[in-house]
Amino acid sequence: MTKPLTQTDKWRKVEDAGLDRGAARLTPERIEQVINQVIDKETSIRFQAYMRDCVRCGLCAEGCHYFLSRDRDPTYSPVAKMHQTAWEMVRRKGKVSAEFVRNAVQLAHTECNLCRRCLHYCPFGIDTAYVMGIVRRIGNRLGVTPQNIQDTTNSHSATMNQMWVKEDEWIDSLKWQEDEARDEFPDLRIPLEKEGAEIMYSVIAPEPKFRTQLIYQAAAIFHEAGMDYTFPATPGWDNSDMAMFVGNHEIMGRLKRMHYETAQRLRVKRIVMGECGHAFRSVYDVGNRWLGWKDTPIEVVHGVQFYHELLTSGRIQVETQIEELVTFHDPCNIVRGRGLMEQGREVARAFCKNMVEMTPNREHNLCCAAGGGVINCGPPFKETRVKGNRAKAEQLKATGAKIVIAPCHNCHGGLEDIIHAYHLDMKLMFLGDIIYKHMKKTKAV
Protein backbone atom coordinates (compact mmCIF):
# COMPACT_ATOMS: atom_id res chain seq x y z
CA MET A 1 0.00 0.00 0.00
CA THR A 2 1.47 3.37 -1.00
CA LYS A 3 -0.94 5.49 1.03
CA PRO A 4 -2.23 5.17 4.59
CA LEU A 5 -5.75 3.76 4.85
CA THR A 6 -7.22 6.65 6.80
CA GLN A 7 -10.61 8.31 7.07
CA THR A 8 -11.76 9.86 3.78
CA ASP A 9 -9.36 12.65 2.82
CA LYS A 10 -10.56 16.23 3.23
CA TRP A 11 -10.33 16.85 -0.51
CA ARG A 12 -12.87 14.10 -1.12
CA LYS A 13 -15.43 15.67 1.17
CA VAL A 14 -18.37 17.11 -0.77
CA GLU A 15 -20.79 19.60 0.76
CA ASP A 16 -24.28 18.15 1.09
CA ALA A 17 -27.14 19.52 3.19
CA GLY A 18 -28.40 16.12 4.27
CA LEU A 19 -24.99 14.95 5.44
CA ASP A 20 -23.87 18.24 6.99
CA ARG A 21 -27.08 19.16 8.80
CA GLY A 22 -27.64 15.62 9.93
CA ALA A 23 -24.15 15.34 11.40
CA ALA A 24 -24.50 18.71 13.15
CA ARG A 25 -27.42 17.35 15.20
CA LEU A 26 -25.58 14.28 16.48
CA THR A 27 -24.37 13.66 20.01
CA PRO A 28 -21.74 11.12 21.07
CA GLU A 29 -24.37 9.22 23.05
CA ARG A 30 -26.75 8.98 20.11
CA ILE A 31 -24.00 7.82 17.73
CA GLU A 32 -22.82 5.09 20.09
CA GLN A 33 -26.37 3.91 20.81
CA VAL A 34 -27.43 3.61 17.15
CA ILE A 35 -24.22 2.01 15.89
CA ASN A 36 -24.29 -0.67 18.57
CA GLN A 37 -28.02 -1.22 18.20
CA VAL A 38 -27.76 -1.79 14.44
CA ILE A 39 -24.69 -4.01 14.71
CA ASP A 40 -25.91 -6.02 17.71
CA LYS A 41 -29.61 -6.30 16.84
CA GLU A 42 -29.89 -6.07 13.05
CA THR A 43 -26.82 -7.86 11.72
CA SER A 44 -25.95 -11.52 12.12
CA ILE A 45 -23.06 -13.95 11.87
CA ARG A 46 -22.65 -12.82 8.26
CA PHE A 47 -21.51 -9.35 9.31
CA GLN A 48 -19.38 -10.75 12.12
CA ALA A 49 -17.69 -13.18 9.72
CA TYR A 50 -16.85 -10.40 7.27
CA MET A 51 -15.36 -8.27 10.04
CA ARG A 52 -13.38 -11.24 11.36
CA ASP A 53 -12.25 -13.05 8.24
CA CYS A 54 -10.92 -10.30 5.98
CA VAL A 55 -7.11 -10.62 5.93
CA ARG A 56 -6.56 -7.25 4.22
CA CYS A 57 -4.95 -8.91 1.20
CA GLY A 58 -6.28 -6.27 -1.20
CA LEU A 59 -7.26 -8.71 -3.96
CA CYS A 60 -10.69 -7.10 -3.99
CA ALA A 61 -9.16 -3.88 -5.34
CA GLU A 62 -9.08 -5.25 -8.89
CA GLY A 63 -12.83 -5.65 -8.76
CA CYS A 64 -13.60 -1.98 -8.02
CA HIS A 65 -14.09 0.54 -10.81
CA TYR A 66 -13.29 3.41 -8.44
CA PHE A 67 -9.88 1.89 -7.69
CA LEU A 68 -9.19 1.19 -11.36
CA SER A 69 -10.34 4.65 -12.44
CA ARG A 70 -8.50 6.59 -9.75
CA ASP A 71 -5.03 5.47 -10.80
CA ARG A 72 -5.18 2.48 -8.46
CA ASP A 73 -5.31 4.67 -5.36
CA PRO A 74 -5.53 2.10 -2.52
CA THR A 75 -7.88 4.29 -0.48
CA TYR A 76 -10.55 3.52 -3.10
CA SER A 77 -10.19 -0.26 -2.75
CA PRO A 78 -13.08 -2.16 -1.14
CA VAL A 79 -10.90 -3.24 1.78
CA ALA A 80 -10.01 0.40 2.44
CA LYS A 81 -13.68 1.38 2.35
CA MET A 82 -14.44 -1.20 5.02
CA HIS A 83 -11.46 0.01 7.05
CA GLN A 84 -12.59 3.64 6.84
CA THR A 85 -16.15 2.87 7.91
CA ALA A 86 -17.48 -0.34 9.47
CA TRP A 87 -14.24 -1.66 10.95
CA GLU A 88 -13.67 1.55 12.86
CA MET A 89 -17.25 1.54 14.13
CA VAL A 90 -16.81 -2.01 15.40
CA ARG A 91 -13.30 -1.53 16.75
CA ARG A 92 -14.27 1.58 18.68
CA LYS A 93 -17.63 0.11 19.74
CA GLY A 94 -19.54 3.04 18.33
CA LYS A 95 -17.42 5.70 19.99
CA VAL A 96 -16.79 7.73 16.85
CA SER A 97 -17.26 11.41 16.11
CA ALA A 98 -20.05 13.09 14.16
CA GLU A 99 -17.47 14.04 11.52
CA PHE A 100 -16.47 10.40 11.21
CA VAL A 101 -20.11 9.35 10.71
CA ARG A 102 -20.68 12.09 8.14
CA ASN A 103 -17.64 11.08 6.07
CA ALA A 104 -18.29 7.35 6.44
CA VAL A 105 -21.85 7.78 5.15
CA GLN A 106 -20.67 9.89 2.21
CA LEU A 107 -18.17 7.19 1.31
CA ALA A 108 -20.73 4.39 1.62
CA HIS A 109 -23.23 6.26 -0.56
CA THR A 110 -20.98 7.75 -3.24
CA GLU A 111 -17.79 5.68 -3.50
CA CYS A 112 -19.48 2.28 -3.61
CA ASN A 113 -22.20 1.30 -6.06
CA LEU A 114 -23.03 -1.91 -4.17
CA CYS A 115 -22.26 -3.64 -7.47
CA ARG A 116 -20.69 -6.73 -5.82
CA ARG A 117 -18.02 -7.11 -8.47
CA CYS A 118 -15.34 -7.14 -5.77
CA LEU A 119 -16.97 -10.22 -4.23
CA HIS A 120 -15.75 -12.25 -7.22
CA TYR A 121 -12.16 -11.29 -6.42
CA CYS A 122 -12.21 -11.99 -2.68
CA PRO A 123 -10.83 -15.44 -1.73
CA PHE A 124 -13.26 -15.54 1.21
CA GLY A 125 -16.34 -14.23 -0.62
CA ILE A 126 -16.65 -11.11 1.53
CA ASP A 127 -19.51 -8.95 0.30
CA THR A 128 -18.38 -5.35 0.71
CA ALA A 129 -21.71 -4.15 -0.66
CA TYR A 130 -23.50 -5.72 2.30
CA VAL A 131 -21.11 -3.97 4.71
CA MET A 132 -21.61 -0.60 2.98
CA GLY A 133 -25.34 -1.18 3.23
CA ILE A 134 -24.99 -1.52 7.00
CA VAL A 135 -23.07 1.78 7.10
CA ARG A 136 -25.88 3.41 5.12
CA ARG A 137 -28.42 1.92 7.50
CA ILE A 138 -26.56 3.39 10.48
CA GLY A 139 -26.43 6.76 8.74
CA ASN A 140 -30.15 6.69 8.00
CA ARG A 141 -30.99 5.79 11.59
CA LEU A 142 -28.87 8.76 12.68
CA GLY A 143 -30.50 11.12 10.17
CA VAL A 144 -27.34 11.42 8.07
CA THR A 145 -28.14 10.72 4.40
CA PRO A 146 -27.34 12.64 1.18
CA GLN A 147 -30.15 15.14 0.66
CA ASN A 148 -31.28 14.21 -2.86
CA ILE A 149 -31.73 10.51 -2.19
CA GLN A 150 -33.41 11.30 1.14
CA ASP A 151 -35.91 13.50 -0.71
CA THR A 152 -36.63 10.58 -3.02
CA THR A 153 -37.18 8.31 -0.02
CA ASN A 154 -39.57 10.90 1.40
CA SER A 155 -41.51 10.74 -1.88
CA HIS A 156 -41.73 6.96 -1.52
CA SER A 157 -43.13 7.38 1.97
CA ALA A 158 -45.69 10.04 1.02
CA THR A 159 -46.83 8.86 -2.42
CA MET A 160 -45.54 5.25 -2.72
CA ASN A 161 -43.49 6.28 -5.75
CA GLN A 162 -40.14 8.02 -6.09
CA MET A 163 -41.18 10.99 -8.24
CA TRP A 164 -44.07 12.55 -6.30
CA VAL A 165 -46.42 11.39 -9.06
CA LYS A 166 -50.03 11.84 -7.99
CA GLU A 167 -52.61 9.13 -8.65
CA ASP A 168 -54.43 11.14 -11.32
CA GLU A 169 -51.13 12.02 -13.01
CA TRP A 170 -50.25 8.32 -13.26
CA ILE A 171 -53.61 7.49 -14.85
CA ASP A 172 -53.39 10.50 -17.18
CA SER A 173 -49.97 9.31 -18.38
CA LEU A 174 -51.40 5.91 -19.30
CA LYS A 175 -54.36 7.47 -21.10
CA TRP A 176 -52.03 9.83 -22.94
CA GLN A 177 -49.84 6.99 -24.16
CA GLU A 178 -52.86 4.97 -25.20
CA ASP A 179 -54.06 7.90 -27.33
CA GLU A 180 -50.59 8.29 -28.84
CA ALA A 181 -50.32 4.59 -29.63
CA ARG A 182 -53.72 4.40 -31.31
CA ASP A 183 -52.43 6.51 -34.18
CA GLU A 184 -50.22 3.53 -35.00
CA PHE A 185 -52.41 0.72 -33.60
CA PRO A 186 -56.06 1.81 -33.83
CA ASP A 187 -57.38 -1.01 -31.65
CA LEU A 188 -54.70 -0.77 -28.95
CA ARG A 189 -55.90 -0.32 -25.39
CA ILE A 190 -53.91 0.00 -22.18
CA PRO A 191 -55.94 -2.04 -19.68
CA LEU A 192 -56.36 -0.46 -16.27
CA GLU A 193 -57.52 -2.34 -13.16
CA LYS A 194 -58.36 -5.49 -15.12
CA GLU A 195 -58.94 -8.25 -12.59
CA GLY A 196 -57.74 -11.76 -13.37
CA ALA A 197 -55.29 -10.74 -16.10
CA GLU A 198 -52.31 -12.95 -16.78
CA ILE A 199 -49.85 -10.17 -16.02
CA MET A 200 -49.56 -6.98 -14.00
CA TYR A 201 -46.99 -4.78 -15.69
CA SER A 202 -45.09 -2.53 -13.30
CA VAL A 203 -42.71 0.32 -14.05
CA ILE A 204 -40.55 2.79 -12.16
CA ALA A 205 -41.78 6.33 -11.55
CA PRO A 206 -39.33 8.04 -13.95
CA GLU A 207 -41.31 6.45 -16.81
CA PRO A 208 -44.56 8.42 -16.37
CA LYS A 209 -42.50 11.43 -15.24
CA PHE A 210 -39.77 11.57 -17.90
CA ARG A 211 -39.83 8.54 -20.22
CA THR A 212 -43.42 7.97 -21.22
CA GLN A 213 -42.23 6.61 -24.57
CA LEU A 214 -41.24 3.44 -22.71
CA ILE A 215 -44.86 2.94 -21.65
CA TYR A 216 -45.88 3.43 -25.28
CA GLN A 217 -43.33 0.87 -26.44
CA ALA A 218 -44.31 -1.67 -23.79
CA ALA A 219 -47.99 -1.27 -24.71
CA ALA A 220 -47.13 -1.81 -28.40
CA ILE A 221 -45.12 -4.95 -27.62
CA PHE A 222 -47.86 -6.35 -25.39
CA HIS A 223 -50.43 -5.52 -28.05
CA GLU A 224 -48.53 -7.22 -30.87
CA ALA A 225 -47.79 -10.24 -28.69
CA GLY A 226 -51.45 -10.58 -27.77
CA MET A 227 -50.78 -10.49 -24.03
CA ASP A 228 -53.46 -10.44 -21.35
CA TYR A 229 -52.18 -7.74 -19.01
CA THR A 230 -53.12 -4.77 -16.87
CA PHE A 231 -51.73 -1.74 -15.13
CA PRO A 232 -52.91 -0.91 -11.61
CA ALA A 233 -54.56 2.47 -11.05
CA THR A 234 -53.64 2.67 -7.38
CA PRO A 235 -50.32 3.07 -5.54
CA GLY A 236 -48.25 -0.06 -5.95
CA TRP A 237 -47.57 0.53 -9.65
CA ASP A 238 -44.05 1.86 -8.97
CA ASN A 239 -41.53 -0.89 -8.27
CA SER A 240 -38.52 1.37 -7.62
CA ASP A 241 -37.01 1.59 -4.15
CA MET A 242 -34.57 4.26 -3.02
CA ALA A 243 -35.50 3.42 0.58
CA MET A 244 -33.56 0.17 0.12
CA PHE A 245 -30.46 2.13 -0.83
CA VAL A 246 -30.55 4.62 2.05
CA GLY A 247 -31.09 1.81 4.55
CA ASN A 248 -34.64 2.76 5.48
CA HIS A 249 -35.90 -0.80 5.62
CA GLU A 250 -39.21 0.20 7.17
CA ILE A 251 -40.28 2.25 4.14
CA MET A 252 -38.82 -0.42 1.85
CA GLY A 253 -41.06 -2.99 3.49
CA ARG A 254 -44.12 -0.79 3.03
CA LEU A 255 -43.31 -0.37 -0.66
CA LYS A 256 -42.90 -4.08 -1.33
CA ARG A 257 -45.99 -5.04 0.62
CA MET A 258 -48.01 -2.50 -1.37
CA HIS A 259 -46.58 -3.79 -4.65
CA TYR A 260 -47.49 -7.40 -3.96
CA GLU A 261 -50.85 -6.62 -2.39
CA THR A 262 -51.80 -4.60 -5.47
CA ALA A 263 -50.99 -7.59 -7.71
CA GLN A 264 -52.95 -9.91 -5.41
CA ARG A 265 -55.92 -7.55 -5.33
CA LEU A 266 -56.01 -7.67 -9.12
CA ARG A 267 -55.69 -11.49 -8.98
CA VAL A 268 -53.01 -11.57 -11.67
CA LYS A 269 -50.86 -14.65 -12.18
CA ARG A 270 -47.52 -12.87 -12.22
CA ILE A 271 -45.78 -9.50 -12.23
CA VAL A 272 -43.67 -8.44 -15.20
CA MET A 273 -41.27 -5.61 -14.45
CA GLY A 274 -39.76 -3.17 -16.90
CA GLU A 275 -36.04 -2.85 -17.57
CA CYS A 276 -34.83 -1.82 -14.14
CA GLY A 277 -32.15 -3.54 -12.09
CA HIS A 278 -32.42 -2.16 -8.57
CA ALA A 279 -36.21 -2.48 -8.45
CA PHE A 280 -35.94 -6.13 -9.43
CA ARG A 281 -33.45 -6.73 -6.63
CA SER A 282 -35.71 -5.02 -4.13
CA VAL A 283 -38.77 -7.01 -5.16
CA TYR A 284 -37.29 -10.51 -5.32
CA ASP A 285 -34.37 -10.45 -2.90
CA VAL A 286 -34.33 -7.65 -0.33
CA GLY A 287 -37.74 -6.15 0.39
CA ASN A 288 -39.53 -9.48 0.48
CA ARG A 289 -36.98 -10.87 2.96
CA TRP A 290 -37.27 -7.83 5.21
CA LEU A 291 -40.99 -8.64 5.36
CA GLY A 292 -40.12 -12.14 6.50
CA TRP A 293 -41.13 -13.93 3.32
CA LYS A 294 -39.02 -16.89 2.25
CA ASP A 295 -39.92 -16.24 -1.36
CA THR A 296 -42.07 -13.85 -3.34
CA PRO A 297 -45.84 -14.30 -2.83
CA ILE A 298 -46.39 -14.05 -6.58
CA GLU A 299 -44.06 -14.81 -9.49
CA VAL A 300 -41.93 -11.86 -10.61
CA VAL A 301 -40.31 -11.72 -14.05
CA HIS A 302 -37.80 -9.10 -15.20
CA GLY A 303 -38.25 -7.44 -18.59
CA VAL A 304 -35.18 -9.23 -19.99
CA GLN A 305 -36.67 -12.61 -19.14
CA PHE A 306 -40.06 -11.61 -20.48
CA TYR A 307 -38.77 -10.35 -23.82
CA HIS A 308 -36.79 -13.58 -24.18
CA GLU A 309 -39.99 -15.55 -23.57
CA LEU A 310 -41.86 -13.54 -26.21
CA LEU A 311 -39.11 -14.04 -28.76
CA THR A 312 -38.49 -17.75 -28.21
CA SER A 313 -42.22 -18.53 -28.12
CA GLY A 314 -42.80 -16.69 -31.40
CA ARG A 315 -45.14 -14.11 -29.91
CA ILE A 316 -42.86 -11.41 -31.31
CA GLN A 317 -40.83 -11.80 -34.49
CA VAL A 318 -37.94 -9.96 -36.07
CA GLU A 319 -38.83 -7.74 -39.04
CA THR A 320 -35.55 -5.82 -39.48
CA GLN A 321 -32.12 -5.83 -37.88
CA ILE A 322 -29.73 -3.13 -36.71
CA GLU A 323 -26.71 -2.86 -39.00
CA GLU A 324 -24.43 -0.82 -36.70
CA LEU A 325 -21.96 -2.44 -34.31
CA VAL A 326 -23.63 -3.07 -30.96
CA THR A 327 -22.36 -4.01 -27.51
CA PHE A 328 -24.25 -5.24 -24.46
CA HIS A 329 -23.94 -3.84 -20.93
CA ASP A 330 -24.65 -6.19 -18.02
CA PRO A 331 -26.64 -4.48 -15.22
CA CYS A 332 -25.28 -5.55 -11.83
CA ASN A 333 -28.57 -6.40 -10.15
CA ILE A 334 -29.90 -8.71 -12.86
CA VAL A 335 -26.57 -10.31 -13.80
CA ARG A 336 -24.44 -10.56 -10.66
CA GLY A 337 -27.61 -10.50 -8.57
CA ARG A 338 -29.81 -12.91 -10.55
CA GLY A 339 -27.71 -14.60 -13.22
CA LEU A 340 -29.59 -13.23 -16.24
CA MET A 341 -26.51 -13.19 -18.47
CA GLU A 342 -27.75 -14.86 -21.63
CA GLN A 343 -31.41 -13.96 -22.16
CA GLY A 344 -30.76 -10.31 -22.96
CA ARG A 345 -27.90 -11.22 -25.29
CA GLU A 346 -30.06 -13.69 -27.19
CA VAL A 347 -32.73 -11.05 -27.73
CA ALA A 348 -30.12 -8.50 -28.78
CA ARG A 349 -28.47 -10.90 -31.22
CA ALA A 350 -31.80 -11.63 -32.86
CA PHE A 351 -32.29 -7.93 -33.66
CA CYS A 352 -28.65 -6.90 -34.21
CA LYS A 353 -26.48 -8.20 -37.06
CA ASN A 354 -23.19 -7.19 -35.51
CA MET A 355 -22.48 -7.56 -31.80
CA VAL A 356 -19.21 -7.28 -29.92
CA GLU A 357 -18.62 -8.09 -26.26
CA MET A 358 -17.03 -5.76 -23.76
CA THR A 359 -13.96 -7.14 -22.03
CA PRO A 360 -14.62 -8.35 -19.40
CA ASN A 361 -18.34 -9.14 -19.59
CA ARG A 362 -21.24 -10.91 -17.90
CA GLU A 363 -20.69 -11.19 -14.13
CA HIS A 364 -17.28 -9.53 -14.51
CA ASN A 365 -18.56 -6.51 -16.44
CA LEU A 366 -17.86 -3.11 -14.90
CA CYS A 367 -20.70 -1.26 -13.18
CA CYS A 368 -22.27 1.82 -14.80
CA ALA A 369 -21.37 3.87 -11.66
CA ALA A 370 -24.99 5.02 -11.29
CA GLY A 371 -26.38 2.01 -9.45
CA GLY A 372 -26.67 1.46 -5.73
CA GLY A 373 -28.49 4.78 -5.43
CA VAL A 374 -25.31 6.71 -6.26
CA ILE A 375 -26.92 8.65 -9.13
CA ASN A 376 -29.83 9.50 -6.83
CA CYS A 377 -27.44 11.27 -4.46
CA GLY A 378 -27.71 14.05 -7.00
CA PRO A 379 -25.61 16.74 -8.68
CA PRO A 380 -23.13 17.27 -5.81
CA PHE A 381 -21.71 13.81 -6.48
CA LYS A 382 -21.88 13.63 -10.28
CA GLU A 383 -18.15 14.29 -10.66
CA THR A 384 -17.38 11.63 -8.04
CA ARG A 385 -19.11 8.89 -10.01
CA VAL A 386 -18.12 10.04 -13.51
CA LYS A 387 -14.44 10.36 -12.67
CA GLY A 388 -14.81 7.22 -10.59
CA ASN A 389 -15.62 5.22 -13.72
CA ARG A 390 -13.05 6.20 -16.29
CA ALA A 391 -12.44 2.45 -16.52
CA LYS A 392 -15.95 1.95 -17.90
CA ALA A 393 -15.38 4.63 -20.52
CA GLU A 394 -12.22 2.84 -21.62
CA GLN A 395 -14.09 -0.47 -21.71
CA LEU A 396 -16.84 1.03 -23.87
CA LYS A 397 -14.42 2.77 -26.23
CA ALA A 398 -12.43 -0.41 -26.79
CA THR A 399 -15.46 -2.14 -28.33
CA GLY A 400 -15.75 0.33 -31.20
CA ALA A 401 -19.52 -0.03 -30.93
CA LYS A 402 -21.95 2.68 -31.96
CA ILE A 403 -24.83 1.41 -29.83
CA VAL A 404 -24.81 0.25 -26.22
CA ILE A 405 -27.76 -1.87 -25.10
CA ALA A 406 -28.39 -1.41 -21.39
CA PRO A 407 -31.57 -3.02 -20.00
CA CYS A 408 -31.72 -0.86 -16.86
CA HIS A 409 -32.80 2.73 -16.13
CA ASN A 410 -29.95 3.59 -13.77
CA CYS A 411 -27.45 2.13 -16.21
CA HIS A 412 -28.80 4.49 -18.87
CA GLY A 413 -28.31 7.46 -16.55
CA GLY A 414 -24.79 6.47 -15.57
CA LEU A 415 -23.62 5.42 -19.01
CA GLU A 416 -25.06 8.55 -20.62
CA ASP A 417 -23.00 10.71 -18.27
CA ILE A 418 -19.87 8.65 -18.98
CA ILE A 419 -20.41 8.77 -22.75
CA HIS A 420 -20.77 12.56 -22.64
CA ALA A 421 -17.91 13.19 -20.21
CA TYR A 422 -15.43 11.06 -22.14
CA HIS A 423 -16.68 12.12 -25.61
CA LEU A 424 -17.65 8.67 -26.82
CA ASP A 425 -19.52 8.41 -30.11
CA MET A 426 -22.23 6.05 -28.88
CA LYS A 427 -25.93 5.98 -28.23
CA LEU A 428 -27.86 4.05 -25.61
CA MET A 429 -30.86 1.82 -26.15
CA PHE A 430 -33.15 -0.33 -24.05
CA LEU A 431 -34.12 -3.77 -25.32
CA GLY A 432 -37.66 -2.43 -25.54
CA ASP A 433 -36.47 0.34 -27.86
CA ILE A 434 -34.99 -2.21 -30.23
CA ILE A 435 -37.88 -4.66 -30.10
CA TYR A 436 -40.48 -1.96 -30.73
CA LYS A 437 -38.59 -0.51 -33.68
CA HIS A 438 -37.59 -3.77 -35.36
CA MET A 439 -40.34 -6.30 -34.59
CA LYS A 440 -43.03 -7.35 -37.03
CA LYS A 441 -46.05 -5.13 -36.51
CA THR A 442 -48.76 -7.22 -38.07
CA LYS A 443 -51.58 -5.01 -36.84
CA ALA A 444 -50.00 -1.66 -37.64
CA VAL A 445 -51.67 0.57 -40.25
Q: Categorize the overall geometry.
A: globular
Q: Could you say what the CATH topology of the largest domain is called? A: Rossmann fold
Structural class: alpha/beta
Structural Rg: 22 Å
Outline the biggest β-sheet. Answer: 4 strands, parallel
What CATH first level of the largest domain would be assigned? Answer: Alpha Beta
How much beta, percentage-wise? 5-15%
- Taking the alpha carbons of the first and last residues, their distance comes to 65 Å
InterPro entries: 4Fe4S_Fe-S-bd, 4Fe4S_Fe_S_CS, Cys_rich_dom, Helical_ferredxn
Protein name: Fe-S oxidoreductase
Keywords: 4Fe-4S, Electron transport, Iron, Iron-sulfur, Metal-binding, Transport
GO molecular function: 4 iron, 4 sulfur cluster binding; metal ion binding; oxidoreductase activity
Structural account:
Pfam families: CCG, Fer4_8. Residues 326-415 form the Cysteine-rich domain. This is Fe-S oxidoreductase. Residues 51-126 form the 4Fe-4S ferredoxin-type domain. With 445 residues, this protein is α/β, with parallel strands linked by helices. The chain has 3 domains: 17-145, no CATH class; 156-310, Rossmann fold (3-Layer(aba) Sandwich); 318-438, Rossmann fold (3-Layer(aba) Sandwich), CATH 3.40.50. Helix content is 50%, strand content 7%. The protein has helices at 17-24, 28-42, 45-53, 65-69, 78-91, 98-110, 128-142, 147-159, 167-181, 206-210, 212-225, 242-246, 249-265, 277-290, 303-313, 332-335, 342-351, 382-387, 390-399, 409-421, 431-438, and strands at residues 199-202, 229-230, 270-273, 299-301, 322-328, 352-356, 403-405, 427-429. The protein has a 4-stranded parallel β-sheet. Helix 2 packs across helix 7. The protein is globular and about 65 Å long. Mean pLDDT is 94; it is low at 1-8.
